[in-house]
Amino acid sequence: MPPPLSPPSRIGLLTGGGDCPGLNAVIRAVVKEAIFHDIAVVGFEDGFQGLIENRTRQLTLPDVSNILTHGGTILGASNKADPAHYPCKQNPDGSWVYEDRTEQCLEILDTHAIDALVVVGGDGTMTCANPFVQRGINCIGVPKTIDNDLHGSDITFGFLTAVQTAVEALDRVHTTAASHHRVMAVEVMGRNAGWLALHAGLASGSDVILIPEIPFSLDEIARVVKLRSRLGKRFSIIVASEGARPEGGTQIIDRVVENSPDPIRLGGVARWLAEAVENRTGIESRYVVLGHVQRGGTPTAADRILATQFGHHAMQLLLAGKRNRLVVMQEGRLTDIDINEAAGTQRLVPLGHPLIAAARSVYTSFGDAPA
Ligand code: F6P
Q1: Residue 241 alpha carbon to ligand 1 centre in Å
Q2: Where are the alpha helices (DSSP H) in the chain?
Q3: Is 288 within 8 Å of 169 (Cβ atoms)?
Q4: Which residue has the CA at smallest separation from atom 14 of ligand 1?
Q5: Which among 82, 115, 123, 147 is annotated as catalytic?
Q6: For the chain, what is the largest distance between any 2 Cα atoms, rounded to a whole number of angstroms?
Q7: How much distance in Å is there from the Cα of 232 to the middle of ligand 1?
Q8: Is residue 204 a part of any domain in this protein?
Q9: Residue to mutate, 265, 269, 290, 292, ligand 1, most ligand atoms under 8 Å from C-beta
Q10: Which residues of the chain have pLDDT under 70?
């Protein structure tokens, strides 16, 4: 094992992938602690895009003043810039020409005399960091995503705020659904993981929760809706993860963003469900897509605390001379794992997860046939 590194004197910081509430809280925590230890922080704008294009800004205490409560990221983010597979120009037929810009980025890091890079992001960002780890750049990862699907961490910051936002929306949908005796299908984000739908569905008392990990049966959803109707509950709330799919069917893709490391954009399942459920039950069914609303807004207190803890732990790793670690939360304990462990994998909801059992215990359906 190589000996610990000396504490850095200049670090780079970037926020990659889709934004989420709490990014600014991490930036604030890293910059404040770094400056306390006389470490300069160079922020790269728009994630790896700013590293490729050498767009930087020195981050000082005034830059991070009063940002704890702000959603988004003061540095900007991008989910289209993988330096090792960079889409540099588009052909007339729409396809992209890719180049490996790793070498160019290494020169830029060298120009700024950067000793270590703090990358705040999800699995895509950790994957983008991998070639730099291979080339000897010390990368420290901080896990963010509203999807909560980063391998190795029980929770990512941004997730709890997105859950709260979705729950507030679902509570509002509830009263209008009840007044009009409608079925409402509400689509939440989450990519291939059902964490957001599971938590928001449970917290809002939704009647049906559809997650990618449990393929659903339309007949079963219709049975639940009709049963509720017979019992005098003339409305039903279905919360559907954007990645949910019917048994034997496929996910609904909204678009393919070819020049992105994460090209598949899911979307459309709630609309499809509303039509199918109405056809099967005869009960008017409508849909709502919460979309990017879930990524915006001020972080909840829990996410401000988590993001600050993550930023602090990242700095502690750097000060201790640790290399290539990802800050994680495991069983309520703040710790760290090898950054490469999180690259290219997604943490899905295990079928035996206690929240699934808890939801079933209050008669919530997952759209699968009853056991
Ligand atoms: O990973 C976060 C996320 O919001 C997913 O839940 C969603 O599928 C995706 O990003 C949307 O990406 P974009 O902002 O590029 O549409």
Answers
A1: 12
A2: 23-36, 48-52, 102-111, 123-134, 159-180, 195-204, 218-230, 269-281, 301-319, 354-361
A3: yes
A4: 18
A5: 147
A6: 71
A7: 38
A8: yes
A9: 265
A10: 370-371
Q: What is the dihedral of CA 216, 220, 221, 223, to 10 degrees?
A: 180
Print the domain residue range for 65: 10-157+299-342
Instruction: Measure the CA–CA gap between 324 and 132, rounded to whole angstroms.
Output: 10
Within 6 A (CB) of ligand 1 lie 18, 79, 145-147, 189-191, 242, 265-266, 295
Is the pTM value of this prediction over 0.85? yes
From the CA of 189, how far away is ligand 1's center (Å)? Answer: 7
Strand partners for 356: none
Show the DSSP H helices in 265-300 as ranges: 269-281
- Confidence (pLDDT) at 3: 82
Q: Which residue type is seen at 24?
A: N
Whether the Cβ atoms of residue 311 and residue 64 lie closer than 8 Å to each other: no
146 assigned to some structural domain: yes
For residues 312 and 214, membership in a common domain is answered with no
Is 147 in the active site?
A: yes
What is the C-alpha separation between 339 and 102, in angstroms, rounded?
A: 18
Distance (Å) of CA 25 to CA 29, 30, 210, 324 = 6, 9, 32, 22
User: Is residue 99 classed as helix, strand or coil in its secondary structure?
Assistant: strand
Evaluate the CA torsion angle 219, 223, 229, 235 in order and state its sign.
negative
Whether the CB-CB separation of 271 and 138 falls below 8 Å is answered with no
CA-to-CA distance for 113 and 105, rounded, in angstroms?
A: 12
CATH number at residue 277: 3.40.50.460
Instruction: Please state, for a pLDDT cut of 90, what percent of the chain lies above it.
Output: 92
Amino acid present at 335 = T
Interval between CA 371 and ligand 1 midpoint (Å): 33
Residue to substitute in 19, 79, 148, 198 for testing ligand 1 pocket (most ligand atoms within 8 angstroms of CB): 79
pLDDT tens readout for residues 43-56: 999 999 999 999 99
Domain-embedded: residue 255: yes
